[in-house]
Amino acid sequence: MDFITPVVNDPYLWGAISAANSLSDVYAMGCVPMNALAIVGFSSCDLDIGVLKDVLKGCIDKLREAKTVLLGGHTVDDKEPKFGLAVTGVCNNGKYILQSGAKVGDLLYLTKPIGTGILIKALKSDYIQQSDIQEAISYMLMLNDKAGRLALEYANACTDVTGFGLLGHSFMIARKSHVKIAINYNQVPIYTMAIDFVKKKVYPKGAVDNYNFVKESISSESNSLDWWKLLTLADPVTSGGLLMSIPREKSKDFEEKANSEHLNFWRIGEVLEGEGLMIYE
User: Fold this and answer.
1) pLDDT, tens digit, 9 for 90 and up, residues 209-266
2) Packing angle of the helix pair 116-124, 192-199 (nearest 10 deg)
3) Taking burial as the number of CB atoms within 10 A of a residue's CB, which of 18, 50, 71, 189 is the most buried?
4) Residue-wise pLDDT tens digits, 59-104
């Protein structure tokens, strides 16, 4: 189950993005979504019911793209709107992938850029308009179904990158797999506008919380990085991509297959002996 507050001004797009975000947990295990229940926080006294109808339409259209259905759900009265899904999926042939299988020598791949939390903060603060972040919106709307299928075929470990940021989700793989995750900052895809804003100290509180959660696990080799670079890597992502740990010997085949299926990917690091995180340039 996952739900979010509004990330854009268009209720239809918010519903579709929230659906894609909720489906990602199933795709990250290499599984297939079967159905969903809506989780809604809405104040009919403060907002027109037409807003909720548009949110649900966006959600249903995205679920249709994912070849699944909305069975129903539950609504509570809430001053701050919230929307998301509880998704049920199945693992075909009993096969699935976890965060705990990363092996020393694996290469790390990410399938969407990061920095959406910073852009959403800038949008809510009226520094930018929704039209300024169309690239990020397009990625947030993108399902992780292709990435999930490839992860199941090639990866030793996988996670979706969402609210805990790239650092937080990388740390979960490191902790559960008993390895060190090494990330090359210069290879991480980041929205250019997000970098500009974080340098101006425009970022969500969640980025600071995420960094504080993992900072004791970041190795001393990372101390030379600028503060804003680490904070960007900790930015809470909405409907982010999949982070995969892929055996080096399978990496060429993975890249060829991803290219043939028109799936964007970036190689951002590797798995080392040890524990925790290492960030370098």
Assistant:
1) 999 999 999 987 766 889 999 999 999 999 999 999 999 999 999 999 999 999 999 9
2) 60
3) 18
4) 999 999 999 999 999 999 988 899 999 999 999 899 999 999 999 9
The burial of 281, by beta-carbon neighbours within 10 Å (0-12 exposed, 13-18 middle, 19 or more buried), is given as: exposed
Exposure b/e, 198-215, CB count within 10 A at least 16 = b: beeebbbebbeebbeebe
Output the six-digit token pair for 4.
């979010």
As given in the structure block, the two tokens for residue 162 are: 């969402």
